[in-house]
Amino acid sequence: MQTEKVVEYIVSWLKDYLETAHQKGFVIGISGGIDSAVTSTLCAMTGYPLLNLEMPIHQEKNQADRAKRHIEWLKNKFSSPIDSIEVDLTSTFDAMVSALPETETTDKVNLALANTRSRLRMTTLYYFAGLHNYLVAGTGNKVEDFGVGFYTKYGDGGVDLSPIADLMKSEVYKIAEFLGINTDIQKAKPTDGLFGDDRSDEDQLGANYDELEWAMKAKEAGKTADEFEGREKEVFEIYSRLNRINQHKMVPIPICDIPEELMK
């Protein structure tokens, strides 16, 4: 990858899209992770206003601290208008949970509530986007968005544009190094931070991003599980299963096309 040229291309693409949409700037949720750090930096490089939102919900302190340090780094590095707001959604989330019917805590319940956190954040991002005529910048990368579908539908998947969605996770890290993103973010284990604990993406997915990237490329090359053994076979099957069950996130919303003869 020609990292510098890729960065220049994305920044130019962001500027062109913003200007064509006749909007004034970008708003992005800052999590303390590598994807939001890279995406926010690319947005800042356009020279247009950038609003960074911290939206903690029972958040791990180390995640919040990394997010704050990154925002300060952005403000010190760029002369363009860069603002930040913290909107603590913990009480909002708790109020919603208390309003829901009581049920036994299960993995399904925990996952539903994790996705609820993401959707509350999406709603908050669009509130501020509407106030300022900004675009919501997505932070999903290629293996998450189009490989295993590791995001929340109408949560962090609800965005106006996706600057890094054609980049593998490893390529996002290369750009982070090129941009000089804080080392603590580059070294932090990837996590979606939706469960209020320290579980990583690998804990949830069953494979790390290097493994999933390998499986994605193997799948695209027409390989099958029978061609592998051991850990490679296990990872390929993990990827294939997640790719299959999460297609509803990756394909356009199905429309019931009414036969023309029924409309006469």
TrEMBL record:
One of its GO terms (cellular component) is cytoplasm. Its EC number is 6.3.1.5. Pathway: Cofactor biosynthesis; NAD(+) biosynthesis. Gene3D superfamilies: HUPs. It catalyses: deamido-NAD(+) + NH4(+) + ATP = AMP + diphosphate + NAD(+) + H(+). Keywords: ATP-binding, Ligase, NAD, Nucleotide-binding. It comes from the Bacteria. One of its GO terms (molecular function) is NAD+ synthase activity. Residues 7-249 form the NAD/GMP synthase domain. It holds the Pfam family NAD_synthase. GO terms for biological process: NAD+ biosynthetic process. Belongs to the NAD synthetase family. This is NH(3)-dependent NAD(+) synthetase. The lineage of its organism: Bacteria, Pseudomonadati, Bacteroidota, Flavobacteriia, Flavobacteriales. The gene is nadE.
